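Figure caption, in words: inputs first, then the predicted bound structure.
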Amino acid sequence: MSIGISHLSDYSIEPRYQATVVSTERITPDASDEDVRELVLDVDRPNLPYEIGQSIGVLAPGDPALGEEHHLRLYSVADLPERSDAGRPRIKIAVRRCSYIDEFTGERHPGISSNYLCDLRPADTLTITGPFGLAFEVPEDHDTSLILVGSGTGIAPFRAFVKHLYRNVPGWTGPVWLFHGARSGLELLYMNDRKNDFAQYCDEATFQAFTALSPRPSWAEPIAWHQMLTERADDLLALLTDAKTRVYLAGLEEMRDHLDEALAKVAGSPEKWTRRKAELMAGGRWVELLY
Ligand SMILES: Cc1cc2nc3c(=O)[nH]c(=O)nc-3n(C[C@H](O)[C@H](O)[C@H](O)COP(=O)(O)OP(=O)(O)OC[C@H]3O[C@@H](n4cnc5c(N)ncnc54)[C@H](O)[C@@H]3O)c2cc1C
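Bound structure (flavin-adenine dinucleotide present):
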């Protein structure tokens, strides 16, 4: 994970607080075999301080066979801070139901925390901790160009971030380019028939959204970042060489190599891209939330 703290065991799980599930809703269409759910949680801590781009820790019941009391996993907050009618902090998270294949036995195991969360029902309670992580900052200069790249559930923090920019930041004039990668069109979160939040910014002169899909999703072929980014190479290069531009990334770690490869083409060579990326990173203008 690339946001400063690299091991979950380094995270403090105190204080912990209870949260209650207000609603749970599948946000991938029925035709998709990916189960991604949006959970709305009311938190029993009136002054929970959290910022756009942060994550909460969920303490799912651990596996006693592994001597685990809790199974800690992090989830990005997927919307702006809100309050329930009773004044409790209300947060939304988007959770993808995961499973993994044991490389020795070949058996498929359900991911502990994601399945626990996806199976919760309204009025169930859970234990959470945090918030954690560096926030994606709104630049002080409101004409800064922003390149936001989210794959899979990595789009969740950008849903909150883009809403914040257009709702709460007066005089925002910087171009916002949102790149959303997913296995197929059915898995484009917040850009599908179930929920299409990003459509509301189409009228904003500064906002543009682009999507990249896997050419053969059933063969698990990687997302075609390369094609999507190189098709816009000239404009993208102009943004990437602007001294103020910021690039924010969120989603699965495997996205980093694919993006580096594609951006090397955009920049003209791997060496040119390595230099440019190093400049962005040194200036704190390349921020990753990868997992
Ligand atoms: C800062 C941060 C923010 C995160 N935000 C989100 C979020 O908004 N939504 C979300 O769904 N997840 C998010 N995650 C991932 C999440 O914390 C868990 O790792 C994920 O839900 C799997 O946990 P689990 O307990 O179900 O699986 P475990 O029982 O821990 O099993 C883990 C196994 O599942 C596989 N796996 C783990 N994560 C994924 C994944 N996302 N896709 C495919 N396979 C995976 C791996 O092969 C791994 O071996 C975030 C992670 C971090 C570090």
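Helices lie at 112-119, 156-168, 225-230, 233-241, 255-267, 270-282.
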